[in-house]
Amino acid sequence: MLSVDVSLIFRLAALAIIITIFYTFLKQAGRDEYAYMTLLAGLAIALLWVIPLIMDLFKAVQAVFQLY
Hints:
It comes from Moorella mulderi DSM 14980. The protein is built from two helices and no strands. The chain is mostly helical. The chain has one domain (6-65). Helix 1 (6-28) packs antiparallel against helix 2 (32-65). The two termini are 18 Å apart.
């Protein structure tokens, strides 16, 4: 039914570490615009990975409470 793959958690953690490194490097280099764009790109990637799980969760809740 609804199962969270452990590899997703590791992928999200790795993405967060990489985005943090890029953000810090760009921020200290004075490229604030690129730092924020990198942050937004990382957020978008993370949402693309997580949204299917959220949709599965809502489908499971609908099935449990029979909300069709």
